[in-house]
Amino acid sequence: MSKRDWRKLDESDVRVRPGKGSRPRSKRRPDHADAESAMVIGVDRGRWTCALETGVVVTAMRARELGRTPVVVGDQVGIVGDTSGQPDTLARIVRVEERTSVLRRTADDTDPFERVVVANASQLVIVCALADPPPRTGFIDRCLVAAYAGGLEPVLCLTKSDLASADSLLALYTELDVPVIVTRFDEEPAELRARLTDTVSCLIGHSGVGKSTLVNKLVPDANRAVGVVSGVGKGRHTSTQAVALRLPEGGWVVDTPGIRSFGLAHITPDDIVKAFPDFAEAAEECPPGCGHLGAPEDPGCMLDELVPDAPGRLASLRRLLASRAGLDDHAD
Protein backbone atom coordinates (compact mmCIF):
# COMPACT_ATOMS: atom_id res chain seq x y z
CA MET A 1 0.00 0.00 0.00
CA SER A 2 1.42 3.36 -1.02
CA LYS A 3 1.72 6.23 1.36
CA ARG A 4 -0.94 8.10 -0.59
CA ASP A 5 -3.46 5.22 -0.23
CA TRP A 6 -2.71 4.87 3.48
CA ARG A 7 -3.79 8.45 4.09
CA LYS A 8 -7.26 7.70 2.65
CA LEU A 9 -8.06 5.06 5.30
CA ASP A 10 -10.43 5.81 8.19
CA GLU A 11 -12.02 3.84 11.05
CA SER A 12 -14.54 2.16 8.77
CA ASP A 13 -11.75 0.31 6.99
CA VAL A 14 -10.59 -1.47 10.13
CA ARG A 15 -11.81 -5.03 10.46
CA VAL A 16 -12.66 -6.02 14.03
CA ARG A 17 -13.12 -9.69 14.79
CA PRO A 18 -16.27 -10.13 16.89
CA GLY A 19 -15.65 -11.47 20.36
CA LYS A 20 -17.39 -14.45 21.90
CA GLY A 21 -19.75 -12.24 23.85
CA SER A 22 -20.72 -9.88 21.07
CA ARG A 23 -23.91 -11.69 20.17
CA PRO A 24 -26.79 -9.80 21.81
CA ARG A 25 -28.47 -11.79 24.57
CA SER A 26 -32.16 -12.41 24.25
CA LYS A 27 -34.29 -10.95 27.03
CA ARG A 28 -36.77 -13.76 26.62
CA ARG A 29 -36.71 -16.31 29.40
CA PRO A 30 -38.31 -19.75 29.39
CA ASP A 31 -41.63 -19.86 31.23
CA HIS A 32 -40.90 -23.36 32.57
CA ALA A 33 -44.47 -24.50 32.07
CA ASP A 34 -43.35 -28.02 32.96
CA ALA A 35 -41.97 -27.01 36.38
CA GLU A 36 -43.17 -29.16 39.27
CA SER A 37 -44.60 -27.50 42.36
CA ALA A 38 -42.78 -28.00 45.64
CA MET A 39 -42.39 -26.57 49.12
CA VAL A 40 -39.00 -25.58 50.52
CA ILE A 41 -38.43 -27.55 53.73
CA GLY A 42 -34.76 -26.82 54.42
CA VAL A 43 -31.89 -24.52 53.44
CA ASP A 44 -28.20 -25.30 53.79
CA ARG A 45 -25.27 -23.48 52.16
CA GLY A 46 -26.77 -22.66 48.80
CA ARG A 47 -28.84 -25.83 48.52
CA TRP A 48 -32.57 -26.06 49.10
CA THR A 49 -34.39 -29.21 50.19
CA CYS A 50 -37.83 -29.29 48.58
CA ALA A 51 -40.83 -31.58 48.95
CA LEU A 52 -42.77 -32.20 45.74
CA GLU A 53 -46.54 -32.60 45.82
CA THR A 54 -45.96 -36.31 45.17
CA GLY A 55 -44.03 -36.57 48.45
CA VAL A 56 -40.62 -36.97 46.80
CA VAL A 57 -37.89 -34.88 48.47
CA VAL A 58 -35.29 -33.35 46.17
CA THR A 59 -32.22 -31.15 46.53
CA ALA A 60 -32.19 -28.04 44.36
CA MET A 61 -30.13 -24.99 43.54
CA ARG A 62 -31.43 -21.54 42.65
CA ALA A 63 -31.58 -20.98 38.89
CA ARG A 64 -29.40 -18.20 37.50
CA GLU A 65 -32.38 -16.22 36.23
CA LEU A 66 -33.66 -15.81 39.81
CA GLY A 67 -30.56 -13.80 40.69
CA ARG A 68 -30.55 -13.07 44.42
CA THR A 69 -34.25 -13.72 44.91
CA PRO A 70 -34.55 -14.93 48.51
CA VAL A 71 -35.85 -18.47 48.96
CA VAL A 72 -36.76 -19.54 52.50
CA VAL A 73 -38.39 -22.44 54.30
CA GLY A 74 -42.09 -22.50 53.48
CA ASP A 75 -41.76 -20.96 50.03
CA GLN A 76 -43.79 -22.54 47.26
CA VAL A 77 -41.50 -22.94 44.26
CA GLY A 78 -41.36 -24.35 40.74
CA ILE A 79 -38.63 -26.94 40.08
CA VAL A 80 -37.18 -28.35 36.86
CA GLY A 81 -34.38 -30.79 36.11
CA ASP A 82 -33.77 -34.04 37.93
CA THR A 83 -36.69 -34.38 40.34
CA SER A 84 -36.22 -38.08 41.02
CA GLY A 85 -34.89 -37.45 44.51
CA GLN A 86 -32.09 -39.96 43.97
CA PRO A 87 -28.76 -39.41 45.81
CA ASP A 88 -26.34 -36.92 44.20
CA THR A 89 -29.04 -35.45 41.92
CA LEU A 90 -29.68 -31.73 41.70
CA ALA A 91 -32.74 -29.87 40.43
CA ARG A 92 -33.21 -26.14 39.82
CA ILE A 93 -35.63 -23.68 41.45
CA VAL A 94 -36.90 -21.53 38.58
CA ARG A 95 -39.85 -19.80 40.19
CA VAL A 96 -40.91 -18.56 43.63
CA GLU A 97 -44.64 -18.11 44.08
CA GLU A 98 -46.18 -15.09 45.79
CA ARG A 99 -46.22 -15.51 49.56
CA THR A 100 -49.47 -15.59 51.52
CA SER A 101 -47.76 -14.75 54.82
CA VAL A 102 -44.26 -14.05 56.05
CA LEU A 103 -42.65 -14.05 59.48
CA ARG A 104 -39.85 -11.49 59.67
CA ARG A 105 -37.52 -10.37 62.42
CA THR A 106 -34.49 -8.16 62.84
CA ALA A 107 -31.53 -8.69 65.16
CA ASP A 108 -32.68 -5.72 67.25
CA ASP A 109 -34.89 -2.65 66.96
CA THR A 110 -32.21 -0.61 65.16
CA ASP A 111 -31.15 -3.20 62.60
CA PRO A 112 -32.42 -2.25 59.11
CA PHE A 113 -31.85 -5.76 57.74
CA GLU A 114 -34.92 -8.00 57.81
CA ARG A 115 -34.53 -11.73 58.21
CA VAL A 116 -37.35 -13.83 56.82
CA VAL A 117 -37.86 -16.73 59.21
CA VAL A 118 -40.55 -18.64 57.32
CA ALA A 119 -42.99 -18.04 54.48
CA ASN A 120 -46.58 -19.17 53.89
CA ALA A 121 -47.23 -20.44 57.42
CA SER A 122 -50.82 -20.08 58.58
CA GLN A 123 -50.03 -20.20 62.31
CA LEU A 124 -47.25 -18.98 64.57
CA VAL A 125 -47.05 -21.17 67.67
CA ILE A 126 -45.26 -19.17 70.38
CA VAL A 127 -43.76 -21.70 72.77
CA CYS A 128 -43.17 -20.38 76.30
CA ALA A 129 -42.24 -22.30 79.44
CA LEU A 130 -44.09 -21.55 82.66
CA ALA A 131 -40.88 -22.22 84.60
CA ASP A 132 -37.25 -23.17 83.98
CA PRO A 133 -36.74 -20.75 82.22
CA PRO A 134 -39.39 -18.34 83.53
CA PRO A 135 -41.81 -16.82 81.00
CA ARG A 136 -40.84 -13.53 79.33
CA THR A 137 -44.00 -11.68 78.41
CA GLY A 138 -42.11 -9.09 76.36
CA PHE A 139 -40.88 -11.79 74.03
CA ILE A 140 -44.39 -13.21 73.68
CA ASP A 141 -45.75 -9.75 72.88
CA ARG A 142 -43.11 -9.19 70.20
CA CYS A 143 -43.89 -12.52 68.57
CA LEU A 144 -47.56 -11.58 68.59
CA VAL A 145 -46.70 -8.31 66.87
CA ALA A 146 -44.69 -10.12 64.19
CA ALA A 147 -47.52 -12.61 63.65
CA TYR A 148 -50.19 -9.94 63.27
CA ALA A 149 -48.03 -7.87 60.92
CA GLY A 150 -47.05 -10.90 58.83
CA GLY A 151 -50.51 -12.38 58.35
CA LEU A 152 -50.13 -15.40 60.65
CA GLU A 153 -52.59 -16.48 63.32
CA PRO A 154 -50.79 -16.56 66.68
CA VAL A 155 -51.19 -19.49 69.07
CA LEU A 156 -49.68 -19.46 72.56
CA CYS A 157 -48.30 -22.81 73.74
CA LEU A 158 -47.37 -22.92 77.42
CA THR A 159 -45.07 -25.79 78.37
CA LYS A 160 -43.94 -27.30 81.67
CA SER A 161 -47.31 -26.83 83.38
CA ASP A 162 -46.22 -29.56 85.80
CA LEU A 163 -43.77 -27.01 87.26
CA ALA A 164 -45.98 -23.90 87.55
CA SER A 165 -49.54 -22.68 87.07
CA ALA A 166 -50.57 -20.94 83.86
CA ASP A 167 -53.36 -18.80 85.40
CA SER A 168 -51.50 -15.50 85.81
CA LEU A 169 -50.02 -15.66 82.32
CA LEU A 170 -53.34 -16.58 80.75
CA ALA A 171 -54.96 -13.50 82.28
CA LEU A 172 -52.63 -11.22 80.31
CA TYR A 173 -53.85 -12.47 76.94
CA THR A 174 -57.57 -12.98 77.55
CA GLU A 175 -58.52 -9.69 75.86
CA LEU A 176 -56.52 -10.53 72.72
CA ASP A 177 -58.46 -13.74 72.06
CA VAL A 178 -55.22 -15.63 71.39
CA PRO A 179 -55.75 -19.42 71.39
CA VAL A 180 -53.80 -20.96 74.28
CA ILE A 181 -52.64 -24.57 74.63
CA VAL A 182 -51.10 -25.80 77.88
CA THR A 183 -48.80 -28.83 77.83
CA ARG A 184 -46.64 -30.77 80.24
CA PHE A 185 -43.67 -33.09 79.83
CA ASP A 186 -45.38 -36.28 80.94
CA GLU A 187 -48.42 -35.99 78.65
CA GLU A 188 -48.93 -36.22 74.91
CA PRO A 189 -49.69 -32.83 73.29
CA ALA A 190 -52.99 -34.03 71.80
CA GLU A 191 -54.60 -30.59 71.68
CA LEU A 192 -51.58 -29.07 69.96
CA ARG A 193 -51.44 -31.97 67.50
CA ALA A 194 -55.05 -31.39 66.51
CA ARG A 195 -54.39 -27.68 66.09
CA LEU A 196 -51.47 -28.28 63.70
CA THR A 197 -53.02 -31.01 61.54
CA ASP A 198 -53.43 -30.09 57.85
CA THR A 199 -51.80 -26.68 58.26
CA VAL A 200 -48.34 -25.18 57.92
CA SER A 201 -47.35 -23.92 61.37
CA CYS A 202 -44.17 -22.32 62.68
CA LEU A 203 -42.91 -22.97 66.21
CA ILE A 204 -40.83 -20.23 67.81
CA GLY A 205 -39.48 -19.70 71.31
CA HIS A 206 -36.48 -19.17 73.53
CA SER A 207 -33.99 -22.00 73.88
CA GLY A 208 -34.82 -24.39 76.67
CA VAL A 209 -38.60 -23.90 76.68
CA GLY A 210 -39.24 -27.43 75.39
CA LYS A 211 -39.86 -26.67 71.73
CA SER A 212 -37.69 -29.50 70.41
CA THR A 213 -39.28 -31.87 72.93
CA LEU A 214 -42.68 -30.98 71.51
CA VAL A 215 -41.45 -31.49 67.95
CA ASN A 216 -40.09 -34.94 68.82
CA LYS A 217 -43.51 -35.92 70.18
CA LEU A 218 -45.37 -34.49 67.18
CA VAL A 219 -42.99 -36.00 64.62
CA PRO A 220 -41.49 -39.18 66.14
CA ASP A 221 -38.75 -39.52 63.51
CA ALA A 222 -37.69 -35.87 63.71
CA ASN A 223 -34.77 -36.56 66.09
CA ARG A 224 -34.43 -32.90 67.01
CA ALA A 225 -31.73 -32.32 69.63
CA VAL A 226 -32.95 -31.66 73.16
CA GLY A 227 -30.81 -29.53 75.48
CA VAL A 228 -30.90 -28.41 79.09
CA VAL A 229 -31.42 -24.98 80.60
CA SER A 230 -28.28 -23.16 81.66
CA GLY A 231 -27.70 -22.03 85.21
CA VAL A 232 -28.55 -18.39 84.41
CA GLY A 233 -32.05 -19.30 83.23
CA LYS A 234 -31.42 -19.09 79.49
CA GLY A 235 -31.56 -22.16 77.34
CA ARG A 236 -28.82 -23.62 75.20
CA HIS A 237 -29.47 -23.59 71.46
CA THR A 238 -30.50 -27.08 70.34
CA SER A 239 -32.02 -26.39 66.89
CA THR A 240 -29.54 -24.68 64.58
CA GLN A 241 -31.61 -24.20 61.42
CA ALA A 242 -35.25 -23.77 60.50
CA VAL A 243 -36.65 -26.95 58.99
CA ALA A 244 -40.16 -28.03 57.97
CA LEU A 245 -41.22 -31.47 59.17
CA ARG A 246 -44.16 -33.42 57.80
CA LEU A 247 -46.74 -34.33 60.44
CA PRO A 248 -47.99 -37.94 60.39
CA GLU A 249 -51.60 -36.71 60.43
CA GLY A 250 -51.02 -34.25 57.57
CA GLY A 251 -49.58 -30.76 57.43
CA TRP A 252 -46.19 -29.33 58.30
CA VAL A 253 -44.53 -27.92 61.38
CA VAL A 254 -41.54 -25.59 60.98
CA ASP A 255 -39.09 -25.85 63.85
CA THR A 256 -36.96 -22.71 64.20
CA PRO A 257 -33.71 -22.17 66.13
CA GLY A 258 -34.11 -20.90 69.67
CA ILE A 259 -33.63 -17.13 69.74
CA ARG A 260 -32.80 -14.67 72.51
CA SER A 261 -34.43 -11.53 71.10
CA PHE A 262 -36.95 -10.53 68.46
CA GLY A 263 -36.29 -7.20 66.73
CA LEU A 264 -39.21 -5.34 65.16
CA ALA A 265 -37.46 -2.54 63.28
CA HIS A 266 -39.45 -3.35 60.12
CA ILE A 267 -42.91 -3.04 61.71
CA THR A 268 -44.89 0.19 62.16
CA PRO A 269 -47.65 0.83 64.71
CA ASP A 270 -50.22 0.90 61.88
CA ASP A 271 -49.12 -2.61 60.84
CA ILE A 272 -50.19 -3.86 64.25
CA VAL A 273 -53.47 -1.94 64.48
CA LYS A 274 -54.57 -3.25 61.07
CA ALA A 275 -54.76 -6.74 62.59
CA PHE A 276 -57.54 -5.53 64.92
CA PRO A 277 -60.63 -4.64 62.84
CA ASP A 278 -62.35 -2.99 65.79
CA PHE A 279 -59.48 -0.50 66.11
CA ALA A 280 -58.27 -0.15 62.51
CA GLU A 281 -61.07 2.18 61.37
CA ALA A 282 -60.74 4.42 64.42
CA ALA A 283 -56.95 4.62 63.95
CA GLU A 284 -57.51 6.28 60.56
CA GLU A 285 -58.65 9.39 62.45
CA CYS A 286 -55.36 9.62 64.35
CA PRO A 287 -52.80 12.27 63.34
CA PRO A 288 -49.96 11.24 60.99
CA GLY A 289 -47.15 9.39 62.75
CA CYS A 290 -49.31 8.43 65.72
CA GLY A 291 -47.94 5.49 67.69
CA HIS A 292 -51.43 4.82 69.16
CA LEU A 293 -49.98 4.62 72.67
CA GLY A 294 -52.22 7.34 74.08
CA ALA A 295 -51.14 10.14 76.40
CA PRO A 296 -48.49 11.24 77.16
CA GLU A 297 -46.62 9.60 74.23
CA ASP A 298 -49.42 10.19 71.69
CA PRO A 299 -51.80 12.81 73.09
CA GLY A 300 -53.68 13.08 69.78
CA CYS A 301 -54.54 9.37 69.57
CA MET A 302 -58.23 8.91 68.77
CA LEU A 303 -58.58 5.31 69.94
CA ASP A 304 -59.71 6.34 73.42
CA GLU A 305 -62.55 8.48 72.04
CA LEU A 306 -63.72 6.27 69.19
CA VAL A 307 -63.47 2.87 70.91
CA PRO A 308 -64.53 3.59 74.51
CA ASP A 309 -66.27 0.26 75.13
CA ALA A 310 -63.17 -1.96 74.95
CA PRO A 311 -60.74 -0.61 77.55
CA GLY A 312 -59.24 -4.01 78.37
CA ARG A 313 -58.66 -4.91 74.72
CA LEU A 314 -57.21 -1.45 74.02
CA ALA A 315 -54.84 -1.82 76.97
CA SER A 316 -53.68 -5.16 75.58
CA LEU A 317 -53.16 -3.66 72.13
CA ARG A 318 -51.14 -0.81 73.60
CA ARG A 319 -49.00 -3.28 75.49
CA LEU A 320 -48.08 -4.81 72.13
CA LEU A 321 -47.40 -1.36 70.69
CA ALA A 322 -45.19 -0.51 73.65
CA SER A 323 -43.28 -3.75 73.14
CA ARG A 324 -42.77 -2.89 69.49
CA ALA A 325 -41.53 0.59 70.46
CA GLY A 326 -39.05 -0.86 72.94
CA LEU A 327 -40.87 0.65 75.92
CA ASP A 328 -41.42 -2.74 77.53
CA ASP A 329 -38.83 -3.49 80.20
CA HIS A 330 -39.05 -7.19 79.38
CA ALA A 331 -38.69 -7.07 75.62
CA ASP A 332 -36.43 -10.12 75.44
From TrEMBL:
InterPro entries: G_CP_dom, P-loop_NTPase, Ribosome_biogen_GTPase_RsgA, RsgA_GTPase_dom
Region Disordered: start-end pairs: 1-36
Keyword hit for Nucleotide-binding: yes
Keywords attached to this entry: GTP-binding, Nucleotide-binding
Gene3D superfamilies to which the protein is assigned, alphabetical: P-loop containing nucleotide triphosphate hydrolases
Domain CP-type G: 110-262
Domain of life: Bacteria
UniProt biased composition (Basic residues): 17-30
Keyword Nucleotide-binding in record: yes
EngC GTPase domain ranges (all copies): 119-260
Pfam families found in the cross-reference section: RsgA_GTPase (PF03193)
Biased amino acid composition, Basic and acidic residues: 7-16
UniProt-recorded name of the protein: Ribosome biogenesis GTPase RsgA
